[in-house]
Amino acid sequence: xLAIYFLAFLHVTIENETFHNIVWPLITIGSxxxxxxxxxxxxxxxxxxxxxxxxxxxxPPLITILLTSAVAITMxxxxxxxxxxxxxxxxxxxxxxxxxxxxxFPPPFPNGWYKLARSGDVKPGxxxxxxxxxxxxxxxxxQVDEEVHVLDALCPHLGANIAIGGVVEGDAVKCPxxxxxxxxKSGQCIDIPYAKxxxxxxxxxxxxxxxxxxxxxxxxxxxxxxxxxxxxxxPLKEGTFRxxxxxxxxxxxxxxxxxxxxxxxxxxxxxxxxxxxPILDRFFYIKHRTECNYNPETNPYNFVFNDYPxxxxxxxxxxxxxxxxxxxxxxxxxxGLVYFRFFTPRGEVAVVKSFxxxxxxxxxxxMEDEAYAEKTxxxxxAKHVVREANKAFDDDIFVWRHKTYMHKPLFVKEDTSMKQFxxxxxxxxxxxxxxxxxxxxxx
Length: 443
Description:
- With 443 residues, the chain is an alpha+beta fold.
- A hairpin with a 2-residue loop joins strand 2 (127-132) and strand 3 (135-141).
- The chain has helices at residues 2-13, 17-53, 59-79, 91-104, 255-261, 268-271, 379-400, 416-425, and strands at 112-118, 127-132, 135-141, 148-152, 167-169, 172-174, 181-183, 189-191, 209-212, 215-220, 241-251, 284-287, 290-293, 302-307, 310-313, 326-332, 337-344, 347-357, 365-374.
- The strands form 5 sheets. A 7-stranded antiparallel beta sheet has the order 11-19-18-17-16-14-13, with helices on one face. Strands 5-6-7-8 form a 4-stranded antiparallel beta sheet, with no helix packed on it. A 3-stranded antiparallel beta sheet has the order 1-10-9, with no helix packed on it.
- The chain contains 8 helices and 19 strands.
- The protein folds into 3 domains: 2-65, no CATH class; 112-220, Rieske [2Fe-2S] iron-sulphur domain (Rieske Iron-sulfur Protein, 3-layer Sandwich); 241-428, Naphthalene 1,2-dioxygenase Alpha Subunit, Chain A, domain 1 (Alpha-Beta Complex), CATH 3.90.380.10.
- Pathway: Hormone biosynthesis; Steroid hormone biosynthesis; dafachronic acid biosynthesis.
- One of its GO terms (biological process) is cholesterol metabolic process.
- Its EC number is 1.14.19.21.
- It is found in: Membrane.
């Protein structure tokens, strides 16, 4: 039993694909093989070997090792049912494919709120450079007011990045190239060391932003309008949640693909019907019951999806009551900030997921996940919930990176939620939304 508990501990604490797909099944199968060998097979084997090969005392351990290895290797090969993924195409084919795919997608930067950084990433007197939305942002925290300021990072003088090598002085940031100093509250240049006066045109764009719940978010709008809605702070009760996970990565996809995926319930039963735990996924499967909440009259910028997954065994279609849970995905805007909530019998596990479009063609996103759990949720349960969510997301990525965008998809009656979500998403594009046509020039 101690060995089983130890294996369970390893499974939920080590976040490594090689470990979970190869090492963990090998250790697990080997452990059970040794157990059965020791309890049932070895006594008989010892009797047989002693009768036939009494002088050779070293033989039984060797045979045990060989048998265990053979069984483990055979079982691991059997468990690897997913077909091998095709190797990536040559670089020139990837570039050609990206251009062709990008031409089919909507504008790459929908209007909305996007996370630029975590509050803890920007200390008083510190400036960082963030690339996204076709821009370079200078994000800094003043030394006097200790508030966050967001400016265009490219100096209007000769184009140097004021966030790379720049220095925060008071509540302004100074360009490292010629020392031009820009006020964080207005973007106006307030000092040029070698000039007698500062031209009124010497200014850089100041971006509307918010700092809340440990997040620094910027408002992007192609028409340069004021925010159409406010970001919704994630309802984490202070003192009742603890952090249980974090991951960051770059994805080759359009942000609408991710957002739209939540409304595509029909793929859940095909792509997300398996547990992430090897061996157990042979005997248990998941069923999904879904619904959406959207009212364009009262809350046009909010869309909520609910999923009620149940776990079943291959021996009975009845759901396992102890494993009942609820998953909720809340969009406020186009998907720059999305809240995933998982309600278990022991409490809530939450993932704050953010996406920032960074590719010029709109097919590259910076993704960042921060996972939290109520203190009433056992640590290993929280880790398992996060791992299941990550597995489902990773399964989707494989499809996203090889698909294109259909402007007029062939919907059937059961695709109502997807059609409804597309209607919701249209409002985040406007006449001046940047399109692929802006990026036709190749050098």
